[in-house]
Amino acid sequence: MRTFEIAVIEGDGIGVDVTREAIKVLEAAGGVDEAAFSWNYFPWGTDYYFEHGRMAAEDYLDQLAPHDALLLGAVGHPEVQDHITLNGLLLPIRRRFDQAICLRPAFLYEGVPSPLRDKPAESIDMLVFRENTEGEYANIGGRLYQHSDHDVAVQTSVFTRRGCERIIRAAFEKAMTRPRKRVASITKSNAQGYGMVLWDETFAEVAAEYPSIETESLLIDRAAMEFVRRPESFDVVVASNLFGDILTDLAAIVVGSMGLAASANIAIERQNLSMFEPVHGSAPDIAGQGIANPLAAILSAAMMLEHLELPRAAASVHAAVKMLLAEGELLPPDLGGTARTEVVGDRVAALVVGR
Ligand code: NAD
Ligand code: IPM
Ligand code: MN
Q1: Is the pTM value of this prediction over 0.95?
Q2: 333: which residues sit within 8 A by CB, 6+ positions away?
Q3: How far apart are the CA of 281 and the centre of ligand 1, in A?
Q4: Which fold has domain 125-254?
Q5: What angle do CA 310, 276, 321 make, to 5 degrees?
Q6: Torsion sign over Cα 21, 314, 38, 279
Q7: Ligand 1 center–CA 191 separation, angstroms
Q8: Tell me, what's the ipTM?
């Protein structure tokens, strides 16, 4: 029996509900691969902020560091500005542990209709590689003449050759393992002639090393249009931090719902902490109602199982989710059903162990 120490930050809003279901499913799936988990819960988030004036303990990154993985629900509260909540908890985790690779699949499951017309089940199957530590999220800048008519804000993007190369290379390596062997790169190098041009140059250099991969480069505005017009044509997609963020909400709805969109923040150094969280946020519009779809968190947990090299456990979760969606009897409201969050989690956990 292998045991893993998992840090858990449920966070805010629906993050709490969906993480509970993910853990329920992981408890069931561990046995499939003779693995057990010990859960280390950290009470960080906006409630902690209301009590302590900060989002997490001062040494929170050090406290997280020794774990085998981190499961996170979501962070964000309507009464606190998002740049405070996110820069106080989530975003420093990605940077500190150099989680440069944000992996976000979008797959059209049987039983889940796309809002786009006539898209058959399984016809859309893309995997977005989002750069996760620099770019537009570098958080460098400043304010001048604040609170005056001359207020000026500078927000700097940072693109490094190393940063571009490692995400682009990871995308190509993954594409080599997928049947369609395509990589699309998304930039805005027509308007942003420094960072985005460095990205394009790096993409061309790395692409030359993978002659069997078919590539395309799209500008972000065009890419948004093509995600709607021909989503089935995309296989691996690689994009900067901000563009990857935007495109993965778009990809999520193209395959049916934010409630299905999983995400893994993978540390470049294997011994560093990786984090698994859904693409979605704390969804204040439905928080506290027990109706959030937990499948995005559950599928993110399956990505954690893969990362921990528990492939049979991961496969059992994927199969259970597929079955639940195909059965169509216990769907949450975002997928057109009436099943509550915990009922969906219970059913997936039962299917994992073959009940
Ligand atoms: P959101 O993803 O929370 O919600 C967008 C829409 O999708 C809402 O209508 C919501 O009800 C729906 N939705 C999202 N997840 C769902 C689920 N599992 N089941 C059913 N419906 C679901 O995005 P937002 O409204 O822009 O952001 C809300 C807060 O979350 C903000 O404070 C934002 O900063 C934060 N946020 C945090 C994270 C994170 O912690 N990783 C990610 C995104 C947004
Ligand atoms: C995501 C979220 C975060 C991001 C926010 C909450 C900072 O939208 O994980 O997609 O933009 O990375
Ligand atoms: Mn996002």
Answers
A1: yes
A2: 291, 293
A3: 3
A4: Isopropylmalate Dehydrogenase (3.40.718)
A5: 65
A6: negative
A7: 30
A8: 0.99
